Amino acid sequence: MSKEWFPLIDEDKCIGCLACYNKCKHSVYDVENGRPVVVYREGCIDGCHGCGNLCPEGAIIYSGEYKEHIKCSCGCGG
Asked: Structural domain tally of the chain?
């Protein structure tokens, strides 16, 4: 789990497909008004790109992107 690595959603790019919400096994996201929102950023795994890799619009970037990180072992693709 990370305090410095977490997803940031570009609301102008997000189309509300919820691919990120459906992919994340760490309860990082919730859905409000049909759109994903980051509600538990501490649940994100350092270096995990699972949700960002699925985003069809490239609406997800990560705080802490350029720090050294550990690969996620949960099978989420991070």
From this structure: 1
